């Protein structure tokens, strides 16, 4: 959290609300610190999910978010 202001690249932060390995409070803290620094990440929490997505609805939503995120932030290589 102390280095959040140094992150200047776009960031997608997906969290499972029931994740025991990476608690959502950690993600929320990073999200809040980055937002305060002026570089708000794209953040999503999946209810009833742990460290990986088991529900098909979460998998589909995540895949769509990744596709949108990459389409928005990746630029074609210069010739």
Number of helix segments? 2
Biggest sheet architecture: 2 strands, parallel
Average pLDDT score: 93
Helix content: 25-40%
Strand content: 5-15%
Which structural class should the secondary elements be placed in? Answer: alpha+beta
User: Could you give the count of β-strands?
Assistant: 2
First-to-last CA distance = 38 Å
Describe this structure in words.
By secondary structure, this protein is of the alpha+beta class. Strands 1-2 form a two-stranded parallel sheet. The mean pLDDT is 93. It is built from 2 helices and 2 strands, in the order E-H-E-H. Strand 1, helix 1 and strand 2 form a beta-alpha-beta unit.
Features:
alpha+beta; 79 residues; two-stranded parallel sheet
Structural topology:
Blueprint: E1 12-16, H1 24-36, E2 42-46, H2 56-73
Parallel strand pairs: 1-2
Quick rundown:
The chain has helices spanning 24-36, 56-73, and strands at 12-16, 42-46.
